Structure formats: C-alpha cells, structure tokens
Amino acid sequence: MPMSVTLSNRFERRRAGTRQALVRAARQILAESGDTSASIQAIAGRADVGFGSFYNHFDSKRDLFGVALEDAMEEFGQAIDERLHGVDDPAERLAGGLRLSARLAESHPEIMRIVCHSELGRICAGRGLAPRMRLDVEQGIASDRFTVVDPVIALSALNGSLLALVELWLSKPQVDIDQAAATMAEVLLHMLGLSPEEAHDVARGPLSAAV
Amino acid sequence: MPMSVTLSNRFERRRAGTRQALVRAARQILAESGDTSASIQAIAGRADVGFGSFYNHFDSKRDLFGVALEDAMEEFGQAIDERLHGVDDPAERLAGGLRLSARLAESHPEIMRIVCHSELGRICAGRGLAPRMRLDVEQGIASDRFTVVDPVIALSALNGSLLALVELWLSKPQVDIDQAAATMAEVLLHMLGLSPEEAHDVARGPLSAAV
DNA sequence: ATTATCTATAGATCTATAGATAATGC
DNA sequence: ATTATCTATAGATCTATAGATAATGC
What we know:
Largest sheet of chain A: none
Oligomer: homodimer
Strand content of chain A: under 5%
Order of helices and strands of chain A: HHHHHHHHHHH
Number of strands of chain A: 0
Largest interface: A-B, 39 and 39 residues
Distance between the termini of chain A: 22 Å
C-alpha cells in the first residue's frame, strides 16, 4: 500500500495500480463483513478491473485475502509506529499504541473493522501492532519498568485486550473509545507491574507531541 | 447438544439425530480450519446424511454454522460452569474459569479450536464463558473484591485475554498450557485490583474440589 | 514487439427442489 | 397415513483459461 518505491515505467505503474485496486476491494470486503466467499468476478467488478486480470496477480482468492490482511496490518503498524516516534519509555509506548489505535478507529475505520473480523492468530502473526508490542514488553522487562511474571503471557493478554478494545468500538458505538482506550491502558499497565498511580498518570498523560 | 429433553417418539429422535450429525460435521469444520466454504454436499457427506436432508433442518450454510458455533459455546460455558459449582469467590471463579479452559483444551480440543477460529465478537455475543465472566466481574466489584476502574473495560480485557490464552495453546504446542493459564489468571487478578500476593495465591491454589 | 488487460466461454461445481424411497405412528 | 430421508437433476454460478484488444517501450 505505501507506494514507497517509485516504479520505473508506466507499464509497472499500471500493473501495480491494477493489483492495488484488487487489494483495496478485498480490504473493503474484509472490513464490511469478513466474508471471503464473494466471487472473484464480484471482487474484480468492485475493483473495476477486468475479470481475467485477477489471475495476472493472484493464484486464488485465499491468496488475495491473505495479501489484503497483511497490507492492512502493515499500514496499521506503521501508522502507530510513526506517531510514536521519539517515545522511548515502553510503558508510554504501550499506552500510546492503545490510545492511538482508538484514534485510528475514527480516522481509518476500515483497518479496525478488518481487525475485528480477523482471527486473533492471524493478526498477531502479521506485521501489525503485535510485534511492536512484543519489543516494548521485552524492553520494559529488561529495564525493570515492568515486573511481570512471564513475558509471553503478558504479551498474550495485551494482544487479546487490544483486539477486545477494537471489538468494543465496533459493537458498542455509544462508548467513548478514547476514554475506553485510556482506561484499558491504565489497567494493563497496572497488570504489567506499574503502581495504580503510575499507571494512571502514564495512561492519562498527554498523547505524545508527534500526534 | 446436551440431549436434556428425552424426545417422545422414534420419529423425533431420528430427526434430532440427523440434525445433530449435521451440527457435529459443521463443528468439525469450524475446528479444523474455520473455513465455511465447504459445499453443503460435502458437509452432508461428512455427516453421513443424505444431501437433501440438509434443507429439512437449515435454510443455508450460514444458518448451520451459526447454530454450530452456538452449540459449541453453550457446551463450553456449561462445562466450565458445572465444574465451578460451589465456588463463590468471584476471583476464584475467574481464575478457575481460565484454568479449566486450559484443561478443556486437552479434553475437548474441538471446542478450543473453534474458539480460535472465531471472531471475538461472535464468541462474546454467545452463551460461552463471556456472560459468566461478566457476572463474576459485577459481583466482584459489588463486593469490593475487585477495585477496578471500569467493569466494561475489565471484562473486555478478560475476554480478549482468554481468547489469547487459547490461541497460545493452538499456536505454540510446546507451552505448558496449565501453567500459562495459572499465570494468566494471576496477572489478570492483579489487574482487577488484587495484590500480587493475593493474586498469586488464588491463581495457584487448588483447582476446586469439584474437578 | 512486448506486456497487461479485457471478453468470452468451457467445464466444473454448487444450490435448491421435486419426486422416490424408507421408517414410524396409530 | 404421515413424515423424514435419500436420489437425481435443473438451473445458476463460479473458476480458470484461451484468444482478442489495448497500452507502452524502444
């Protein structure tokens, strides 16, 4: 998705555009219902791409949807990452990641809907927030910022809780999701060993200058 | 699934048997891959049921898989519930629910695989462990056993963490899942406001006489 | 000239139903 | 006699490909 590499000629750009249109259509479907049973014909139609072109880029629907999920997760992770640039304290990074995810729900609802409709295992396996949180947990333990029994368990709880937060946003629109994210960050930081006061201060503090 | 009602005549029992065979086949598929694109023919074949019989019981595949998920979640919730009979302390109930879920992974792996392959929203919406944990959280807050900022957030974290625990069992077979569940219970009880010592004692204590 | 896209279609598969068969109730 | 199951099949849909068309490079 992030077209960081400038493609050399018009051929390649056109090809990349077709592929991207297919991926975007697949992302829309993942966000809307998560139901991947739409026909290739319907997907190509939604992408405004000739039916046969699909096979120029993907071997199967499964293939496309796998790429589409990875694409969304990568964008998710990078969006959070760049907004946390310069934040070093792992506690602040974790809290910031949760709270920024809540803001992404407003600005990039498609990504959050995709998260909701995906299996936790697939989300965590990818390049989303999960590997970034893992680094924060490890670093926090190494620097004694966190006093936690087991990093694997702590990370599992964080991943699951993040998913549950996003799910909360989707299923209960009346909830103030920014508030919910801050509260979630607070209880999770406490879980990681910060005192209630510390957890409160970090979770309710200003949300990084970079935002 | 729990055939609590004795059906009056052989007709109804035969009919119920056919339906159950279809539901069991659907549960198998949900557990194996979660891929609901198998044809009705294939499902009926797996259930060893005539193809047309499907339509005597369900209007669509979607229908069947919805029932199958509910069926598994109901069994899950009841299995935990009966093993927690007589346990009154909400902290013990929550810890017990997590730890017993880990044991169910050994004794009823199908249910746990279904959980892993399902969306969190669907799991929590159903009649599984989620509504039971909600009661425990409410009761624990009412009795001041838990000092937690927000019950909705706490419950979300619990639901998500439970899912993550099951996911851990599926994706990393080398992990001692009983240990992991106890550790998860410990950190979550701490999150709910118990002191580290209390949380440790409750989470590592004997797992209810009823088991 | 080369490459990607688009159109048309063959063949496979899937859904839903209609009618035949088998099991049970009374 | 009634009801459920099973078998066979019509019609719809879907996948994958082959060949025609359009766009670009050199």
